[in-house]
Design goal:
The chain is 56% helix and 13% strand. The chain contains five helices and three strands. The chain has a three-stranded antiparallel beta sheet.
Length: 106
């Protein structure tokens, strides 16, 4: 029995364009690995400017992938975390990437 072409198994149109951008993929990866990150910690870890980081965080926030909380107890600090929707979108994104990797190895 012959196999179907592997490309039929990967629907490239399902790659989430919001996540697929390099900086946003980096942010999503960090947020998936740790429950919450402060803006300053993300900035330091990713070596991004304030403006660049906030632009990408805003895109993720507007997509519903990231939540934002402002903590003013000790010092003003904004913290970010994945939402349930964001975690699901990231998992689906990773599944497609895994399909692509499997396809490239076969």
């Amino acid at each position: 029995m012959s196999q179907k072409p592997v490309s039929r198994y990967v629907d490239f149109s399902k790659l989430d364009k919001t996540i697929h951008e390099k900086a946003r993929l980096s942010i999503m990866t960090l947020l998936a690995a740790k429950a919450e990150w402060s803006f300053q910690d993300l900035k330091s870890e990713l070596d991004m400017s304030d403006g660049n980081l906030i632009t990408h965080l805003r895109a993720l926030y507007n997509s519903g992938y990231v939540s934002m909380t402002k903590d003013v107890e000790k010092r003003p600090q904004t913290k970010y975390a994945l939402t349930g929707v964001g975690r699901l979108a990231f998992e689906e994104y990773l599944e497609i990437i895994e399909q692509i990797l499997r396809m490239s190895k076969s």
